[in-house]
Amino acid sequence: MKNPLDDFGCLVFDDRAMRERLPRETYTALQRTIREGKSIDPSIAGIVANAMKDWAIEKGVTHYTHWFQPMTGITAEKHDSFLSPYADGDIIMKFSGKELIQGEPDASSFPSGGLRATFEARGYTAWDPTSYAFIKEGTLCIPTAFCSYDGQALDMKTPLLRSMESINRQALRVLRLLGDTETERVITTTGAEQEYFLLDKEMYKKRRDLVFCGRTLFGAKPAKGQELEDHYFGAIRPRVQAFMRELNHELWKLGVLAKTEHNETSPSQHELAPIFTTTNIAVDHNQLTMEMMKKVAEKHDLVCLLHEKPFAWVNGSGKHNNWSLATDQGENLLDPGDNPAENMRFLLFLAAIIAAVDEYQDLLRIAAASAGNDHRLGASEAPPAIISIYLGSELTSVLEAMECGSACHPSVREMQSLANTLPAFAKDTTDRNRTSPFAFTGNKFEFRMPGSSASVATPNIIINTIVAEKLSYFADCLEQEEDVAKALPRLICETVKDHQRILFNGNNYSEEWVQEAARRGLLNLETTVDALPYFTAPKNISLFEKQQVFSEDEVRSRYEILLENYKKTLHIEALTMLEMAKTQIFPATSDFAGRLAENIAKKRAVCQAACKAEEKLVLRLSNLTDKLAEKIANLEAALAQVNAEETNVLSLAKAYRDKVKAAMKELRAIADEIEPLVAKEAWPFPTYSDLLFSV
Ligand code: ADP
Ligand code: MG
What we know:
With about 700 residues, this protein is α+β, with helices and mostly antiparallel strands. It contains 21 helices and 20 strands. It has 3 domains: about 5-155, Glutamine synthetase, N-terminal domain (Ubiquitin-like (UB roll), Roll); about 165-215 and about 230-550, Glutamine synthetase/guanido kinase, catalytic domain (Creatine Kinase, Chain A, domain 2), CATH 3.30.590; about 565-690, Up-down Bundle (Four Helix Bundle (Hemerythrin (Met), subunit A)), CATH 1.20.120.1560.
C-alpha cells in the first residue's frame, strides 16, 4: 500500500518545489526576502510567478486566486484563469509577476467598519511570500494580505505580519543587550489545537438552528450527556475514523502537519492538533484545516460544527493557542533549560510575558470575544472570563526565591519511574492545569480561551503586540545600564513583584477564584459587550500605534465590526428561534394535545374510561402552549423595541445582550419543558439524543 506521507506537501509550492524549479539566484533572493522580511524585488516576482504557473499546470490547474482573510473570520477567494490572448487570436497560459504580487478585488462587500466608503470600493491584495502558495480544488491559491486603497488593513494577515515584525524588532534589541550577536531574526511559533463536533448530515438538515446558526437554540437535556466521561480519549468509531483518515491525508497534501487526533469530552466532539510552525503559516493552516474539516465531513455524509457552543448541557469547543518565540538559530526562547533559576534570558522573556498579560488583560479577553464564545467562558468547561497565568510550582518557586533575594532555587529535574519495567521519564517543569486561561506548558504558553470558530490570527496579534511592548520597555531600561548582567535579576524581580496578581496556580473554575480575582483587582469582563469597549481605550490605541500594528482608525473599525457582528449573530438567532417556535414547536405541540383529546373522547365513548392521565397531560400542554405563545410575543416585542430605541452600535449590542438574549432564554426554557412531554414521532426535529449519538 502507498504510504500517505509520500504525498506530504504535494499540493504546496514549498521550499522543495522552489529549489527544484527556480534559478538559483532567484531562489536565494526569494529566501532572503522571506527570511529578512523585506519587500519583494519585482524582477524576481515574474520568474517566481512563471515557475509557480508551470508547476500548477502540470498538476492540472487552470486558475489562480489571491486567497485572503477578510474580517468575516473565514477566507475569501476570487478565481481568474491563466488564459491570456496572444497574437493572431492564439491563447496562452500566462501568470505575470504583477498578477502574483497584487490583486484588486472589489472590497465593497467585505466588512470594513467604516474604513472604506462603498464609492471607494477598491481593495488590494498583496502576496505574502512568507506563506507558501498551494493548490486547492484545482486552483492555485496565493496567500495574500488585504487592504484598502490607502493601505488600511481590512484583514487578519496584515496586522499579524506587522505584529510579528514588531516582536522581532524588540526581541532582537533584548537579545543584543544580552550579548547575542548571532541571532538575526526572532519568530513566533504557534500550534493551534482545534475542537469540533461531527453530526449526521440528514439529522443536521432537519434543524434550522443548526443550518442557520451552527448551534442548537432548543433542546431538552438528554438522558445521557458527558456524565460518564466515557467519550474523552475513547476508542474512535469507524465512521469518524474514516473521516479523520481522509482529513489527515488531505491536510498532509497541503503541508499541514496534522498530528494528534482524539475524542473530546462531549459525545460527538473531537480534536485535531497540528505540529506547531511559524505563526503566520499556522494561522493560514488553521483556516485551511477548518475548511477541510467541513469539506471532508460532507463527503462522509457528516457535518462538522465549529461553533463554540453547539449544544447546551455538554461542553463547547475551543481552540488552544500554543505560542512561543524562536530564534533563527533554532532556539526556543521559552525553554527554561535544566536550570531555569540561572537562565536569565528565559526569565527575562518570562517576566515580559507576565507583565504584558497583566497590563493588557483586556486585550487578551477581547482576543477571545464573540457571541459564540460567551456561552463557554466562565461556564466551568472553559477558563473564566478572568485572565490569569499558570506557571506551575517549579517556576513559581524560582520566581519566589528570586523575589525575596535568596539564593536561586535548586531545580534539578526529578526523574520518576512508574514501575520498574517502565522507562524513567523526566518530569516537565510544569504539571498541567486545564482550568487556566494562560498556562505555561513546559516551553510555551497555551492560551486556552479562544473560540473554536475564530481565526487564531487575533490572539496571536494581541500576544505578539503586548509582549513586544514589554520587551521594548525592557530594552529601554537595559540600554541605560552599565552592567546589564547585574541589572537583569533586579529588573526581572521588580517586574514579577509588580505583576504578582496575575499569577494563579489554583482552580480557575471555582467561585473562590472569582472572589479572589476581584480582591486582586483583576478584570472580569463577562461578555463580549463588556470587553469590546476596552479595545479603544487610549492606552491600547497608543500601544497599537507605537508597535505599528494598528492605526487608531484601524482599531476603531475593528471595534465596530466586532460589535456589529455580535449584534447580527444574536439577531439571526432570535429570528431563527421565532421561526422554529412558531412554525414547528407550536403547531406540533398543539397537534399532539389535540390527538390526545381525540383519544380521550374515543375512549370515553367506548367504555366511559376516566382518561385521567391524558386529561392532565392535555391540560399541561395547553398551558405550556399558552406560555410558549407569550414568550414568542415577548421575544418579538424585545426585537422591535431594541431596534426602535437604540441607534448607537454599542448600546444596540448591549440591548441585544440584556433584552433579546433574556427573551430567547425564556422561550427556550418553555420549549425544552414541552419537548419531553410530546411523543417522539410528533416532535418536529431531531432531539439532543438523536444528534449527539448519531454518528
Ligand atoms: P497538550 O496541550 O494537549 O498537552 P502538547 O503539549 O503535545 O499537547 O502540544 C499542544 C500543541 O502545542 C501542539 O500543537 C504542539 O505542536 C504545540 N507546541 C509545542 N511546542 C510549541 C512551541 N514551541 N511553540 C508553539 N506551539 C508549540
Ligand atoms: Mg491543549
